[in-house]
Structures are given as C-alpha cells and as structure tokens.
Backbone:
C-alpha cells in the first residue's frame, strides 16, 4: 500500500515537472525565439541599418513582406491559434475587439497623438512630414506590437498568472518594454547623437501600460508608430518625408490588410464567452 502510494506520488511529481517544462517551452521559449528571429531579420533586411535613412522602394517592400508581415504578424498569429486551444490567451487579452470598441479606441488615440504633435512636432512645423514618417514606420510598429505585446506580453502574463494581476501585469510591462527598447535601437541604429536605451524603454513602458489597459491592437499600433516618429525623427530619410514613394503607402496598406484579415478570421473562429458567476461558486 505504501509502495503504491509512493509510486503514485512519484508519477504526480514527474507529470508536474513535465507540464512545467511544456509550459516554459510554450509560453516563454517559443515566443522569445520568434522575437529573436524577427530582430535578426530586421537587422539583416535593413541593410546595415540604412533602410529608413535612405528608403529604397524594393528594399522597403521586401522588408515589410518578410520581417513585418511574415515574421511579425503571420507567425505570431499561428502561435496564437494554438494558444487559444490550450486556453493560454483569449480575444480580449490579445487586443482584437469589436469594431465599435476599436474605432473608439483608435479615435481617442489619434486625438491624443495629434495634440502631442501640435505641442511638439519633432519634424518641425510641417505636420505632413510627421504623417509621412508615421506611414513609413507603421508596418514596423505593427510588427513590434504583435511580437512584443500580443505574443510575448500575453504569454508572459499566462506563465505568471498564478500570482494574479499584481504579478502578471508588472511582469508583462517590464519585460515587453525592454524588448521594445532593444528593437528601437536596432531600427536604423542609435543615431549620430546616440539614443539612450532609457528613452526607448520609457516609450516601451508607456506603450505596455497602454496595451494592458486598453487591449486594442490597432490603437496601440497607432500609439507605437507615433512614439517611434519621436524616437527616430532624426534618422528618417528627409526626401521620403517630403515626397513619399508609393511603396511607403503600399507597405502600410499591406500590413494593415493582413492584420484585418487575421482579425476577421479570429472573430469567425474564436470567441470568448463570459459565464455568469453562480451563487456559492466564486470561480
């Protein structure tokens, strides 16, 4: 009887250890591996860090297609599909919301961002230059959001959710802010004056708090693209900001179209149902 009990206890421990290893692989290792692969692709495809400082249409489309759309949007989507089935994430957590909710969040974000541009435009008095810079950085910002927060951030939260929101949200904010800060330094390099990592991480903290509070992938993309213009204004191609190539518009449309297609697919195939709490059953 004692041997059987010990054997059963050993099986439980072995099963628990296996489940823990699987959770580490699924929630931490795979998302971080995607982040590293995306970072390396970004570094490679920006051709020695000159993509944004000297925009070439062919290079921009290649970069957008491979680094921003394939690795930055499609690969996270494929991982998220599996995470839905395991119960690690849901539609609310990854920021794909209803159309009225998304429109409201985007409008408010645009108004706040426009106010910031009026107060302090890093590109001078020409607000059209800011709009063009926004479009140049939009695909990259969308990929940053999908990788850093929709994929890595939500999976970090799922890994530590046993500690409650007081643990999971700070963990998600800090770690994703650091990841975003590193990506900002990779995009076109630190610049002639050297952008301090603290500025990039600070922007990442603001973006992370915004994402975990609002939970809307489109609104956070607008916010990140706007902040990226402030962070990278002195390293963007001035010719492209004055007279954007058609490739700039095309790359933005492609990235948004792919995201919208994924959004539509998720809404048709997945949903999050809130069950009522029954009396005497707080769970």
Residues:
């Amino acid at each position: 009887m004692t041997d059987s009990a010990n054997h059963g206890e050993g099986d439980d421990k072995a099963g628990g250890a296996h489940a823990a290893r699987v959770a580490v692989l699924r929630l931490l290792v795979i998302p971080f591996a995607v982040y590293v692969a995306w970072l390396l692709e970004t570094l490679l495809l920006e051709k020695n860090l000159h993509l944004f400082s000297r925009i070439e249409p062919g290079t921009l489309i290649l970069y957008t297609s491979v680094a921003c759309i394939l690795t930055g949007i499609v690969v996270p989507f494929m991982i998220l599909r599996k995470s839905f089935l395991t119960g690690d994430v849901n539609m609310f957590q990854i920021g794909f919301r209803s159309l009225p909710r998304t429109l409201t969040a985007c409008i408010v974000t645009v108004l706040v961002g426009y106010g910031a541009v009026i107060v302090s435009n890093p590109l001078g008095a020409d607000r059209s230059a800011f709009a063009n810079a926004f479009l140049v950085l939009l695909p990259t910002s969308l990929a940053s959001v999908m990788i850093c927060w929709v994929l890595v951030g939500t999976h970090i939260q799922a890994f530590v959710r046993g500690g409650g929101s007081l643990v999971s949200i700070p963990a998600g904010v800090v770690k994703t802010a650091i990841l975003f800060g590193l990506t900002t330094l990779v995009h076109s390099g630190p610049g002639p004056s050297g952008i301090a990592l603290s500025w990039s991480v600070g922007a990442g903290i603001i973006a992370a708090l915004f994402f975990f509070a609002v939970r809307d992938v489109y609104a956070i993309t607008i916010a990140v693209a706007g902040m990226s213009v402030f962070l990278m204004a002195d390293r963007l191609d001035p010719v492209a900001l004055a007279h954007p190539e058609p490739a700039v518009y095309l790359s933005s449309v492609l990235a948004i179209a792919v995201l919208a297609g994924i959004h539509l697919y998720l809404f048709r195939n997945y949903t999050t149902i809130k069950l009522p709490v029954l009396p005497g059953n707080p769970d």
The CA atoms of residues 109 and 223 lie 7 Å apart. Residues 275-283 have pLDDT under 50 and may be disordered. DSSP finds ten helices and no strands in the chain. Residues 2-45 form the longest helix (44 residues).
